[in-house]
Amino acid sequence: MNDLCADIGYKSINHHGEQLCGDHVDVVESNEKTSIVVLADGLGSGVKASILSTLTSKIISTMMAEGIPLEECVATIAATLPVCSVRGVAYSTFTIVHIKNNETAEVIQYDNPHVILIRDGSNYDYPKTEMNIGGKKIYKSVIKLCEDDTFILMSDGCPHAGIGTSYNFGWKREEIISFMEMLVPVGYTAKTLSTILVDECNKLYNDMPGDDTTACVIRIRKREPMNLLFGPPSNRDDCDRMMSLFFSKEGKHIVCGGTTSSIAAKYLGKPLRASLEFEASDVPPIAYIDGVDLVTEGVITINKVLTYAKDYLVGNESYEEWSMKRDGASLICRLLFEEATDINFYVGRAINPAHQNPDLPIRFSIKMNLVEELSDCLRKMGKKIKVSYF
Question: What is the pTM of this model?
Fold first, then answer.
């Protein structure tokens, strides 16, 4: 048994002038220790390529999750993909990384740029076995996982970046490896690493990508529990039970809400010290309690965290905002999005009269909605979530 887990993140940009991306990434988690990641790149770009890559990734990930052999998956793809009326072929390249029990990775590659593995801060040249399945040359590798192993999957849009502009022959594999060797040891999340790589490709394309470009990063890391307390319990007699459960959990502790932080301070027998520094105009200031890692205001702060979480799942455009700022919402984002793998929410059902104002947006009046939406976003980030109500 190990306490490792896989942090998976990806980002795509479309071929210039196209509405749809011809690359597709599909992630299937059969259980919390086994994941299948498929990056498929359809022939050409636009709608046809999008259909080809989506079908390919969905078929492979679903069939492999059911334990069906690779040969059958490839045969099914060949029989299923619609043939292009112009080119007369049905074609989509793919890269598969099958993480088993967070102990080994099976890497299967067909016609995509080969997966880069960064281990101990430098490129690791893993062995590959050549196979022939249905006339396709496929490479297979089985790799024993170590903590901080980082797999980088790419579509051909990455090495083609900058052809004819920044570089004569595109961004060479060795240069991409050097670029990633500098970033991986910093400890960025998989999502952030894939975002930085694709943004760099976009720069080399002068913001006019000549091909669909996708990067998917899988980072093997230790599990990191995190606990967030939000709101007082509906029954006052439950305060001590709620606090003892919350503070007995391993990992960092975040307390959100004015009344909640007063209850936590009283339970710990420590003073609650408010910060008088407004780090952001739209987020109330934080506070301090000895023995608590972060103390913030409640609904307004969590609503801001939810806004950042929704953006993180789409374009991750606000990354520079929450990764640098010192306000409560940004600090929570860094803990939940970047540090945590397992998050326990302790949510009090007490109703705050201040939130029942009909002039406030509807989501402010329902704390539960915030928690449900945020939990849903965090699950999509690959976090393990448990919510307890009091």
Answer: 0.89
